TrEMBL record:
It is an enzyme of class 2 (transferase). Keywords: Flavoprotein, FMN, Membrane, Prenyltransferase, Transferase, Transmembrane, Transmembrane helix. Dimethylallyl phosphate binds at residues 157, 173. This is Flavin prenyltransferase UbiX. The keyword Transmembrane applies. It catalyses: dimethylallyl phosphate + FMNH2 = prenylated FMNH2 + phosphate. Its EC number is 2.5.1.129. GO terms for molecular function: flavin prenyltransferase activity. Belongs to the UbiX/PAD1 family. Residues 6-169 form the Flavoprotein domain. The gene is ubiX. FMN binds at residues 13-15, 40, 92-95, 127. Flavin prenyltransferase that catalyzes the synthesis of the prenylated FMN cofactor (prenyl-FMN) for 4-hydroxy-3-polyprenylbenzoic acid decarboxylase UbiD. The prenyltransferase is metal-independent and links a dimethylallyl moiety from dimethylallyl monophosphate (DMAP) to the flavin N5 and C6 atoms of FMN.
Length: 191
């Protein structure tokens, strides 16, 4: 029997909604993978600002399970039913800081905390620039707890022609860090 991998996707309020849409589209096509989605209040606002209405409407249908941010009783809030990996894409500084300092009053943060305590992959695509020392300290704190900080930086060597190409490559890279088999989507450096 084939094992189904459960991948959590959190869309926070940081700019970069196209990254989340790209990741969800990739996950929807991966065999033996189900995605568990959480959209924060800020994430919903940003989706509506950055994407076309039909793209915003598509997002819940790309995921097998949509969780409410306030539902701290959701299955993914428990270590006994933890996800196999979790991605926060895009990740706001607010979300990063809440994870770094254990403010688990929302499902997205509680589920991230579970990932860290269970030693499972947690990838944060922090979307902020410039950064001050408090941001860097939060990144260091999460890294020391086992999280992976992966800012969505374009791979310029690929000479991308569109924002969609940049988003697809970034989404594939983050999914790869979470242990997903995205070899068809991920373009690697070759000389």
């Amino acid at each position: 029997m084939t094992q189904i991998r459960k991948i959590g996707i959190v869309i926070s309020g940081a700019s970069g909604s196209i990254l989340a849409l790209s990741a969800l589209r990739i996950l929807a096509d991966l065999p033996n993978t189900e995605s568990h989605l959480i959209v924060t209040e800020g994430g919903q606002r940003t989706l509506e600002l950055e994407l076309e209405p039909e793209e915003v409407s598509e997002i819940p249908y790309l995921s097998e399970k949509v969780n409410e941010e306030q539902d701290l009783a959701a299955s993914i809030a428990s270590g006994s039913n933890a996800l196999d990996a979790m991605i926060i894409l895009p990740c706001s500084i607010r979300t990063l800081s809440a994870i770094a300092y254990g403010q688990t009053d929302r499902l997205s943060i509680r589920a991230a905390d579970v990932m860290l305590k269970e030693r499972r992959p947690l990838v944060l695509a922090v979307r902020e620039s410039p950064l001050h020392s408090g941001h860097l300290q939060s990144m260091q704190q999460v890294t020391q707890m086992g999280g992976i900080i992966a800012p969505p930086v374009p791979a310029y060597y690929l000479k991308p022609q569109t924002i969609e190409e940049i988003a697809l490559q970034n989404a594939a890279r983050v999914l790869n860090l979470a242990g997903c088999n995205v070899q068809q989507q991920l373009v690697r450096w070759e000389r």
